[in-house]
Every structure is written in C-alpha cells, then in structure tokens.
Amino acid sequence: MKELEIYKKECLLEILRLYKKANAGHIASSLSCLDILIFLYFRQMSDQDHFILSKGHAALGLYTVLAASGKISQDELETFYEDGAKLAAHPPCSGLLNGIVFGTGSLGHGLSLAAGKALSTRFTGKNAKVYCLLSDGDCNEGSTWEAALFAGHHKLNNLIVIIDNNGLQGFGSTIDILDMTPMKSKWDAFNFDVYLVENGNDLKSLQQVFQSVQFDNPKPKCIIAKTIKGSGISFMENKMEWHYLPMTDEQYSLAIQQITS
C-alpha cells in the first residue's frame, strides 16, 4: 500500500501542476476519483482488462495515472490542454491514445460502451474484465439505466461499475438536482451485485471491498464509493465551485504546500 501512496502523491502533484499550467477547471472532479484510478491501475486490473472513464471531465486524473503506469510518455502528458494535442479536457476518441478505449465526456455514454465491450468478450473468447467509472451526474442519465438493464439481463459478470459518489455535480448537490437515494437499492433492482465503500478516497478501504467482490457471481458488479470532491485540498473539498474554477497562484501554492508538508 505504501507504493500506491507514493503513486497517489506523484499523480496529485502532476494534476495540480498541469491544471495550473493550463489555467483550467475540473480539478476537484479529478481529485475525487484519483484513489480509485490508482487502485485500479496499480493493484486491480490486469493487462487484458479495459477501463472506461464515463466521467470524462476527470480526464487529467486518468492521464496522470496512465503516465505513471508507463502507458503514455511524460512528454505527451505535458501537452495536456494544448491546441491540437491528444490530451484534451476529455478523453480523446478511441485509438488516439494508449489506454483510452473510447472517447467520453457527455455523461451517460460510458456505461453503454462498457456493457458492449463486456458482451463482446464472449464472442472473442477473451477472459477480460471491463471497469467503468461513473459520476453522480452519470446516474441522472436515462442511457445509464438502459445500459444497466442490458447488463443485468445479459448477466455481464465481467462488467464492474464504480460510482464516484461525491454528492456534487456541475450545478449543485446531487440530492437537490436529482436525488438518487437510495442508490444501492436501485442497482440491486437492476440485477447488479452491489458493494459499498464508505471511504472511496482511502486505498485500504478500496482494497478491502475489491477483495470481497465475488467475480464468479453471474451478475455484473457495482461498487458505490463515497468520495469527497476535491479530496486532499482543504479549500476545494466539498465545494461545488471547484467543479469549474482554475487556481490562482496563491491557491496553487497553498495546495502544493498541503500535499508536500
């Protein structure tokens, strides 16, 4: 676990540096799911597995993890948000970047793509799992629930959905915008095998839950991870405005100090 903590710190510093360099927002969205990405890429997934980031606005979190795992180069990572670069604000279209299966960003698309990918492995004979990271906002979309119906009906037990349940989205709290509680009951009703992570920003908690997942169960899996938007940076945590805001020089210095001190 110590090795994962080192990767986490390195990726966190890179996320802040590159967002500051680009003068861009969506910082808190990347921070809320960074632990999940770190755990999946450095502990959970095999080389033959697939990952789809449905909450595409957290692309930089994914890019830094891909770079740390050697799937993209540091030189390419430096091009984030630059004109004409592959590393756009949302993951690029399929095939443009190593480790990106599909381009995403319009919420509600990721799970449909993941379900199709999971079903296709039955025809190719590959023993691969498909992991799909959703946001609260993804769960507001009807297409997400169509895909969930499809996955449950076809018993796609190689599909693992992880929900970054940070309670905030672009225009406020998820409870106020479209209340999804009780979320576990909904995924249960769609024939998913559902697990809860009380602290999705803790690598040990993630490990404990993933170790309990019954992958031989014929149902698709759903892991609901309670997270903090802006996790790790005190002035960003649980603040909706950090869905969009770029950092000032002073805020960037304070954020770096909090991580390195």
Explain how this protein is built.
With 261 residues, this protein is an alpha/beta fold. The protein has one domain: Thiamin diphosphate (ThDP)-binding fold, Pyr/PP domains (Rossmann fold, 3-Layer(aba) Sandwich). Helices cover 44% and strands 12% of the residues. It is built from 10 helices and 7 strands. It has helices at residues 2-22, 27-44, 59-68, 74-77, 110-124, 142-153, 174-178, 183-189, 203-212, 249-260; strands at 50-53, 130-135, 159-165, 168-169, 172-173, 193-197, 221-226. The strands form 2 sheets. Strands 1-2-3-7-6 form a 5-stranded parallel sheet, with helices on both faces. It has a two-stranded antiparallel ribbon with strand order 4-5. Helix 1 (2-22) packs antiparallel against helix 10. The longest helix is centred in the first third of the chain and has 21 residues, at 2-22. The mean pLDDT is 95.
Total of domains: 1
Q: What Rg, in angstroms, do the CA atoms define?
A: 17 Å
Quick one: CATH superfamily?
A: Thiamin diphosphate (ThDP)-binding fold, Pyr/PP domains
- CATH structural architecture: 3-Layer(aba) Sandwich
Helix run count: 10
One letter per element, helices H and strands E, the order comes to: HHEHHHEHEEEHHEHEH
Mean model confidence by pLDDT: 95
